[in-house]
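Shipment paperwork, digital attachment
Item: protein structure file
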Amino acid sequence: MPLIPSYDKDRIVRGYAQAVNQYESFKLPTMRSAKGAKLVATAGAMGERQVDYSWLGSASTKYQISADIRDYVMVEVPTVEGNVPNRNMNCFLSSRLQEFLPQYGCQCFQTFIGKPAFLEHDHEDETKAKGVIFDAVFKVVNGRSFVFILKGFDRTKDAKLAEDVLTRKINGHSMSAYAGFFDCSVCGKRYDTKWQNACRCLVGQPRIPKELNGMGVVQANGQLTYNMPADFYFFEDSAVADQANWISSQTKQFEGSEG
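Attachment content:
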């Protein structure tokens, strides 16, 4: 079944990033907690963590992926940068990324956890998932805030894709969020994702240069206008061939700590 209503595709917000670490999960130490939870230890760009994957067996039946943690190629991705507009002129505020969402029982950035991983956003059918997202952290690096995810690609589901991710033949990744509203970065006016009631900052102004491939506009004074998603959550992250993103040139600052 679709992860989101098919009639609401205009609510999808996307962004691109590049992986900074990848490793084979069978090389990672696994253990049990005192209460019997299944844990895997990681120590990459996301820091030293013991990730609870006790839910993997249940998720595997929904996504039709392996229930064995050893079958996965893991990849760490700084999938969202807070307070900086991405190529699509969408800016996720750090305060909103950290906001607690009662309907999900977690902070907004944590809605990545347990969501499927696809190839090229082929998310119409959850059983086409190529893997799953095991963990998500909000982290400040050199004064900049990021949401890092730990995403696993199942070798038994798509061996070629898993190998391409491991060898960085495919190093581009793209998240998908489902937004309820947008706020204008200039005047702060809120409008829906169908651009109903959009402000003058966003309607009838010159577009930004076409090569930026963005939704933003430039005001007469040169100020860049962009969308700030509100009332959103994350529902998937994909491996993609398109690796271009403003964040990509900065990813080397996270490297040097392989898991």
